[in-house]
Amino acid sequence: VKETGKNNYELFMESMKRKIIDKLDLESDLRHAIEKEEFVLFYQPQIALATGEIIGVEALIRWEREGVGLVQPMEFIPAAEESSLIIPLGEWVLKTACKQNVKWIKSGIKPVLMAVNLSSKQFQQRNLVEMIERILDETGMDPTLLELEITESTAMQDIDFTIKVLKKLKEKGIRISLDDFGTGYSSLNYLKMLPIDSLKIDKSFVHDLTNSPSEETIAKSVISLAHKLNLLVVAEGVETKAQLELLKNHMCDKVQGYLLSKPVPPNEAEKLLRKAKSE
Ligand code: C2E
Ligand code: CA
Ligand code: CA
Ligand code: CA
To answer: How far apart are CA 173 and CA 129, in angstroms?
Structure first.
């Protein structure tokens, strides 16, 4: 009897099946993880370059997945987004971040901004503004300390809709930051139209900053343009002293990155905040 190995097609189908099952497992685990409260927020400090002080933190989600350990957001946020689980999850993130901010202030820590990421699907939700208002109410969060980060690509999906929603949020005193700036295709005209407070230069640009003079020129002009539009500039992914110095020289307002601190669990973030200055 001739031993037939599996042909390419069969192997392909098996791997497809595996992928589909993995995806379903992930979705069902995610669903249960919300109920089991397996998520945690880590916080990464944002530092004002002029003073060296921590003036904010960005909340970044992690999943303590049973039997797996700490799972990074890139491994589950896309699935959460696809399955719409991002809606309850995003609500949990916002509520937890607001509660944390209030708790820190009550314990005597100097108030800092709390930056929270909004996914595209969350941003398209019709009741987004109401949901945020409710959470502000429930937690007692000062809206002027809340900074919502939406990516450039989310903002550009439907510019009129974006402007409408952002205006409502701004009326509440909430700040808006344009995340991952430079990775999408926002024309500068649009940038002018958006009611935002700051933009975050994507870490891919920061990474190349000290490698080539042209990258430096780009960064320099983005910063000066942003300032002309009355926007603050945050550089994310700052890993080296050289990058920091260069950003300082070009008048970047805030920095965030491993050089200053990784995202850390709440108790460690609290310690950093109590120290106030970060070297
Ligand atoms: P992001 O919003 O662009 O967040 C910045 C990412 O850069 C974070 O990755 C952070 O840990 C990382 N980072 C910070 N400093 C450095 C550095 O110096 N070098 C490098 N190479 N990376 C640095 P993280 O925490 O893995 O999050 C990845 C992405 O997942 C976020 O990108 C955001 O898009 C998404 N995400 C995280 N938490 C949430 C959340 O609560 N809600 C939503 N919708 N998305 C989230
Ligand atoms: Ca972000
Ligand atoms: Ca970013
Ligand atoms: Ca990103």
So the answer is: 12
CA distance 47 to 112: 10
Which is the closest atom of ligand 1 to the Cα of 238?
Answer: 18
* 3-class SS of residue 154: helix
The angle subtended at Cα 95 by Cα 91 and Cα 98, nearest 5°, is 140
Residue 61 CA: which ligand 1 atom is closest? Answer: 38
Cβ(150) to ligand 1 under 6 A? no
Complex ipTM value: 0.97
Sequence-distant (≥ 6) Cβ neighbours of residue 26 within 8 angstroms: 76, 79
pLDDT digits (tens, 9 = 90+) for 10-52: 888 888 777 777 777 788 888 899 888 899 999 999 999 999 9
CB distance 77 to ligand 1 below 6 Å = yes
